[in-house]
């Protein structure tokens, strides 16, 4: 609460000072020997004032050197230089006389943005790109080449480049749990829960291509993939017109979705989705952590909980996953009499090469239950009225997501007594 008030206060101070700077005439080129500090002269604005680069306030009195939409109340951050090391109040960013853009922390630590040839000037452009130029107006460095979680119209993603979600919406802009990668070895573009060695929960299947690029077309605001000769995958197919009446962005979100948004410049109230990779949010892998269970009644929000026999690792953050309330027994002392099978309707444990054990065709519910109890290695199974798929521990991605998991039954084996009686030894 106090933190929120302080942030609002800092924002209004920043707003006052940056608006003042704007009316005082924004130079087209930022010259060598110029610097910014949080609070005072806190941003370099683009000529239209749509974008600004400067110190963006985050929680705890810290700042990120970043670029944001400067004319909308949300001040949506689209790029940052130092997302995992926020800068304290007394930090500065300098475009030094020797041509370096450098973030200087109060303890003297320096974070250099550009290397190699010295820059001669810089500019914050109206397309949201921050550019460092040499004396022949050649681009030496640009923020469009090192995206964090967001792409803007005019920006291109090349093979090998990645976007990482942030950790928590507007609360925590550090590197989060989900990655969008345009894979350099095959040209496939994949969304994954990369910390789990995940093969991905959404992909474009644009494989066996030599060169693939993601284009965020500035004139149409459509996103699509191209190879050397043609469009090979279309994402956006509809945006409100005219294009210039809206702000546009595409972001890999903390929910694991990759989504394109518009914000009406006049009278707009919020970002509105025009395209999304994932339509059922529980299909984002690992969204509820290890042993977590995801439900989504409306395809908009999700809720994470634990299955019978499991409890939340962190009760104040259900997305961190669950842990078993029972000891995992060695197979040598396994006794099926100590276990029961719980059946969850319209739910699934999706396919996963790491935890799938076997697929049995033409099964039925009773034999699925019996098979679970009889085999000490299996902990869970899913049954779709014909086929049974068994799982071992630990499992990810248990979910109930309609209509996709309709008729599927998720089966899980738990001890009849979830806690050992105390003093029983
Ligand atoms: C802020 O910017 C103005 C105009 O560029 C400059 O005159 C002034 O010295 C700057 N103030 C600080 C504290 O850097
Ligand atoms: C960075 O800018 C500040 C404020 O203008 C100045 O005091 C400092 O000497 C500069 N540091 C470097 C390395 O240029
Ligand atoms: C300097 O400050 C930054 C930000 O607070 C911190 O991450 C870094 O570890 C510090 N470096 C040293 C050498 O103390
Ligand atoms: C953007 O789309 C327009 C209209 O389809 C096309 O003429 C132009 O070449 C595209 N731009 C890029 C960078 O592909
Ligand atoms: C581009 O992709 C299309 C469709 O997969 C393919 O037919 C074509 O040969 C590719 N072009 C190049 C130059 O690889
Ligand atoms: C969720 O999205 C899917 C796929 O677009 C759709 O078929 C389904 O009706 C939606 N479910 C709800 C509850 O809105
Ligand atoms: C994000 O932050 C909010 C507010 O602090 C918190 O309630 C929520 O649990 C956080 N979510 C995640 C996924 O960490
Ligand atoms: C169950 O899954 C198998 C394998 O994916 C599939 O062939 C079968 O049609 C499914 N049965 C139903 C009723 O959906």
Poorly predicted runs = 1-10, 12-27, 419-425
The CATH topology label of the largest domain is Agglutinin, subunit A
Tally of separate helices: 2
Q: Work out the count of structural domains.
A: 3
CATH class of the largest domain: Mainly Beta
Which class of secondary structure composition applies to the elements? mainly beta
Q: What is the mean predicted local confidence, pLDDT?
A: 86
Bound molecules: 2-acetamido-2-deoxy-beta-D-glucopyranose
List how many beta strands DSSP finds: 34
Strand order of the largest sheet: 29-34-31-32-30
Q: Cα-atom Rg, whole angstroms?
A: 26 Å
CATH superfamily of the largest domain: Bulb-type lectin domain
Instruction: Give the end-to-end Cα distance, rounded to a whole number of Å.
Output: 49 Å
Q: Per CATH, which architecture of the largest domain?
A: Orthogonal Prism
Can you summarize the main beta sheet?
5 strands, antiparallel
Shape: elongated
Helical proportion, percent range = under 10%
Q: Strand share of the residues? A: 35-45%
Task: Kindly describe this structure.
- This protein is mainly β and 425 residues long.
- The chain has three domains: 1-146, Orthogonal Prism (Agglutinin, subunit A), CATH 2.90.10; 149-278, Agglutinin, subunit A (Orthogonal Prism), CATH 2.90.10; 292-415, no CATH class.
- Helices cover 8% and strands 36% of the residues.
- The protein is built from two helices and 34 strands.
- It has helices at residues 2-23, 365-374; strands at 30-31, 34-36, 43-45, 51-57, 63-69, 77-80, 92-95, 101-104, 110-112, 121-124, 130-133, 139-142, 150-151, 156-158, 162-168, 172-182, 189-192, 202-203, 213-216, 223-226, 231-234, 246-252, 258-264, 272-276, 292-295, 303-306, 310-312, 322-324, 339-345, 356-360, 380-383, 388-391, 398-400, 409-415.
- A hairpin with a 6-residue loop joins strand 16 and strand 17.
- The longest helix has 22 residues, at 2-23.
- It starts with a helix and ends in a 10-residue tail after the last strand.
- The model is unreliable at 1-10, 12-27 and 419-425 (pLDDT under 50).
- Pfam families: B_lectin, S_locus_glycop.
- Residues 1-21 form the signal peptide.
- One of its GO terms (biological process) is recognition of pollen.
